[in-house]
Input
Amino acid sequence: MSILMIVPTRGRPHNAKELIESWEDTINVGQSDLLLAVDEDDPKLAEYQALSLPLGVRLTVGSRLRLGGTLNRAATWEAPYYTALGFMGDDHRFRTPGWDTTFNDKLFELGDFGVVYGNDLLQGAALPTAVVLSSDIVEILGYMAPPGLIHFYLDNFWKDLGNALGTLEYFPEVIIEHMHPGAGKAPSDAGYQEVNTFDTADHARYDEYLATQFNEDVRRLKDGS
Output
C-alpha cells in the first residue's frame, strides 16, 4: 500500500516548505509520497522550483485550473501508480508520526473503496478537510471530486461518498492540523479572500451533482464499473 498526498498550492511557497517539513517528520518511509501541484502562471513559481525536495516529494507545474480542477488532473494522472490518493491544503500540517501507516492499514482492511481522514483540529469529524481514499475510486469515476467544483464542498463529497459506500473511517487521534485563518492560526491573504467568493456557486453545483449524479456514482463503485 502506498499513498500519494496531492497538494494544490498557489502563492505560498513558505507554506509548502513547512508542509514538506511536517511530512518528513511524521512519515514511515515507503508508505507515502507528496506532490505539490503549482500553476504555471504563479508569480512565485520560481520560489516553488527553488525548494529543496526530499526523496518522495515532487512538484508538478500546469495550467491554472483552481483547486478542484488541479486536484482532479493530478489524481487521474497518478491513480494507476498508487493504491491510495490523498488531498490536503498547503495550510495543513502533519502532526502524528506514522499517520500514513495507520491510513494504509485501514484502507487495506476496508477494501477497494475506502475513505479515511484524521483530525484537523478545526472541523474534526464533521468534515475531511484532508482525506485519503482508494485509487480505485478515481479510476472508476474519472475524478477525485465532482468536476465543476472550484474550491468548496469537495470535503462534503468525500464524506457523503464514504458514508454511502459504508467505507468511511475517522481517526481522531491522527492529527493533520488545518492552520486556517478561521481558526486564528494564520493571517488571511489574497488567496483566502479570493476563494471565499466561490462558495455560493460551488454550493449550487454540489446540490446539482447530488441531485443528478451522486447515486449513479455510488452505484458504479458498488458494481465495480
Notes: The chain has one domain: 3-223. Residues 130 and 151 are 13 Å apart (CA to CA). The beta strands are 3-9, 32-39, 57-62, 84-87, 92-94, 115-119, 131-134, 168-178. The radius of gyration is 16 Å.
